[in-house]
Amino acid sequence: MGRENIFVGLEVGTSKICVAVAEAHHDGTLKVLGVGNAPSRGVRKGEIVDFETAKRCVHDAIVDAEEKSDVEISEVYLGITGGHIRSFNNRGVVLLEEGREEIDEHDLEDVRTNAREVSLPVEDCILHTIIQHYYVDGQDGVLNPVGLFGKKLEADFHVVYGIRTRIQNAIRCVKELELDTADVVINSFATAQAVLDKQQKQLGALVIDIGGGTTDFLVYVDGAVKQSGILAVGGDHITNDMCIGLKIPTTRAEKLKSEEGSVTLGTAFPGETIVLRDETGFAGREIERELVNQIVHLRVREVLEIVRRLIDGEQNLHYIGAGVLLTGGSSQIRGLEDLASEIFGMPARVAHALPLAGVTSAFENPQFATALGLVKYAHLAHLDRPLEGGLFSRAIRKLSGMFRA
Amino acid sequence: MVQLNRQYDRDEESASPISIKVVGIGGAGSNILDRMVLDGSEEIQLIAINTDVQSLAGSVATHKVQLGRTLTRGLGSGGDPELGLAAAEEATEEIRKALEGGDVIIVCAGLGGGTGSGATPWVVQLAKEEKALILVIAALPFTFEGRRRCAQATASLEQLGASADAVICFENDRMAEIALPRMGIHEAFAAADLTISRCIRAIVAILRRPGLLKIGFDDVRAVLRGRDSRGLFGFGEAVGENRAHEALALALKNPLMNRGEMLHDSYHAIIYIRGGSNVTLGEVQTIMEELNRHINDRTKLFMGISVDPEMGQRLSVSIISSLGSPVGPEVSRLPQAVPDERISKAKSEHVIDAGRSVPDKPAEFPEPDPSCSDALLPEMDIKRFSVPEREPVQDKESAPPPPPKEPAPKPASRAPDVKKAEAKQEVLPFEPVSRGRFEKSEPTIVDGQDLDVPAFLRKHIKFR
């Protein structure tokens, strides 16, 4: 069993599995002890499709993190993604019974439960009910209603749900490695915790995590999660487009994408080429640079435009004051910032995880943003709710709560 | 045949070198002359023509002609082209004397000013009477210099276009791209002058230097004489391992080339490679292969290579071309009295012309006119293949110039490959819809579109 104040974030990504290990100090700071990663196989579009292979990869990543951080990992916060995950905003209402006017903790629980009471397809389960705003007797701007007097407590929540069996696959994968899952968090929410500071959340920000298999986005408005979404299109699709368009093998396309891929059009000389050296199983070839860029551009533009449409559809675009923050492995593609600023009409930049104490190299790589976000989420959750009982029982409670349809 | 050719070149060189005169008109023109002298020009006759005596006195040109002795009395023309023209007319005899005997007269001037835009057309007119090949190198004013100057420049340019054999325009606005915005204004102008003087030197070198693959006077004329006589010029020089690639990239980066885009619209291009005795076959091949991608299928390429020990480790690439389609009769006049390979070229040229008259937009080339490319191919082959057939074996034994002799054939032999590859790419978008590696995974459908299918296929984007 590890030390009690250790938090581990595990993201089973499509191209990479990342693990972050952090230690909470008594003064409320978090120190990253180490990060581990392993290339991922058996995962498509953010979901496990080959259980045994994926399990081995997760194992490798966990071992890597254990070696680097010198911690024996026993429990993880698991990042979840996948095209099946959806979300909506809902308001819960609780009327205080006669004779009682002071709002207490139980009312908060009740209002949350009330907001969760929506009819979802039977196979779905709720992942998160993230609080947005409280209203007491219709008055808004209430940050913490506990202790306030009122007759009616209302609260807006952002509810995230997905197909239960598919979420369970990821949990089972961790479980078979003799690890406990403390909590399941959607990747975009975790990532936002890592890259956004309080001010940006207040101003309104859009976080887009373009990973290998999925593009996860999350909108913060007025300090609350307003919208989230997952598009099962990511860097793999860019690679696939290149394979088909350029007729080159996947591994070669992958390399070409990371070495040369750019979304900026018109910067290559007409006829400028990229030479692919011949290697075993692949005869060398020359490929027109503009062609490569065009393929990448069209795909990335499409993804960003879909995200824009979704956000605009809920009229959230105008409330984003702090701009767009791009993260995830595919955010390293050249020219992405400019393209995103153009599409969203606001400043966009590739964001790194906000620095914590400890292993600094982890913050420089946007690939680790989600894993770091998970430990940050864990830390916040830990601070929010002091433990009732041991970690293990808490985990059970959480999990069982989660699967309550 | 080639052996013979080389012999021929040598004879010509020793017998009568072409007389080249460079005339600088107005302030800008004499600045360019000065720059040429500073950079160490070859033995070219430099003639400065100006109304302003002070500027003329400061010029380092060997011949000087003062315009408007009585009209402006040694002062400038005050930005009035009519005054400039009148001053030039006054000095007609002097100018004529200075231009006498020139085979090629290169006139450089900054258009927009009084002397530049007023006197230049007149000087060109006089040069034409000398039956010389006239090449005008004009620097156009910055847009910020005002509309009036720009209008004067445009008017003057039109006149020049009508009478000169070729006009190469250096737009100052574009030239500004060479210099960084924070560069000193002096440096910036010097950089512009340097580019122009390089251009002149490259042309002179092409005309003068005994090339291994020689570009003739007639070739230059064919390239530069177009209906739209705006010329393109790019120059690049590099040293080191990757010098061939770098020199070409530099040449294409030249602002006048607009990153090579302009080359697509031209019908003729001269590429002139100059290097020390260590130029390799591979380097020439690299340059030609890369260049082949920048030109469209109809462009006729003249390649010249010269080996000059002076160059040492450096390798320079100059590209000269002009926009627009060539004037009909000019082309057919070209092949007179040239070796028989040229005649076959001329024949194919006629075919090209016929084919070309149908699509009159030269800029559009996604679907190359089959008749054109077919007609052109044999020509290119003849020009390039004719050299290698007998050559290589003999050459290995013979002494000094052989090594670069071989380079020519290789690019040609590779050229058809490149074409094939391009043709293949065009077919690409019409293939059946494919999801590739996502074939078996759950489809991601947004707004009725299967996002697993490549975006470019769904948008029916046709790649060139």
Provide a compact summary of the structure.
Chain A is α/β, with parallel strands linked by helices.
Can you put this structure into words, describing what you see?
The complex is a heterodimer of chains A (405) and B (464). By secondary structure, chain A is α/β, with parallel strands linked by helices. Among the domains of chain A are: 86-161, Dna Ligase, domain 1 (2-Layer Sandwich), CATH 3.30.1490.110; 199-352, Nucleotidyltransferase, domain 5. Helix content of chain A is 36%, strand content 30%. Chain A is built from twelve helices and 19 strands. In chain A, the strands form five sheets. Chain A has a six-stranded mixed beta sheet with strand order 11-6-1-2-3-19, sandwiched between helices. In chain A, a hairpin with a 3-residue loop joins β1 and β2 (16-24). Chain A is globular and about 80 Å long. In chain A, 49% of the residues are buried. The model of chain A is unreliable at 386-391 (pLDDT under 50). Chain B is 47% helix and 16% strand. Chain B is globular, with a radius of gyration of 25 Å. In chain B, the strands form three sheets. A six-stranded parallel beta sheet of chain B has the order 3-2-1-4-5-6, sandwiched between helices. With 464 residues, chain B is an alpha/beta fold. Chain B has three domains: 17-208, Rossmann fold (3-Layer(aba) Sandwich); 281-426, no CATH class; 431-458, no CATH class. Chain B contains 19 helices and twelve strands. The model of chain B is unreliable at 1-15 and 325-431 (pLDDT under 50). The chains are: A alpha/beta (405), B alpha/beta (464).
